[in-house]
Predict the structure of AAA ATPase.
Amino acid sequence: MSRICSFEIQRDEFNRKLGGGFPPGSMVVIEGGSGAGKSTISQRLTYGLLQNNSKVTYISTQQTTKGFINQMYSIDYAIATHLLNGSLLYIPVIPLVRAAKSRIDFIERLMSAQELFENDVIIIDTISSLIKYSVNTEKSLDLISFFKKLNGIGKVIILTIEPSQLSEDVTSMFRSSCDIYCTLKVRPMSNEVKRTVVVNKFTGAKGPVGQMIGFRIEPKVGLVVEIAAVG
């Protein structure tokens, strides 16, 4: 895939604020604590990518298929057609995360599941939940090398990470290896929560990239980019 991976939709500015889309062959790391909005950002990216004719594989440690569909429709991201026509492959791995014996060799199993990596974009939300029981520095290198090979044939890999689930060494390896690195910040205000995407690194952007993008989530609307991000 040689074209830019746009996730433009008419109702928000998220794609424009993030350089007009992801360059082909990008590895994207989105880092944040529990409740920071990693899944919501992943869902928004998924919907936008599908609307712009990318094929997406979404591997989730967070929701069942039914839960994912219900969540997407609650924020008006209609995905039934994409699931039915095969442009979206949704893989819930909650049972695997909970099953003790699957934890040790999970990285090897993930890399050998070729059908998961056939689409244009692969989103793993959250990679840290999947690998926290089986990861060490050597296995992290193997996994990052595997993702880089996929990048080499134009695929975009989007990984969400909860840093508390991994050692600092392993988290640093993902940060330094990726092309695009964002952190999600949450700040309680008087009567609401301010959420911000902080763009730490963005290699190969097609257009200007906002350094801080404030956002909120509204029922029946989805992700709304705030006019002025609060640092």
Observations:
- The chain has a mean pLDDT of 91.
- The chain is about 35% helix and 25% strand.
- The chain has one domain: 14-225.
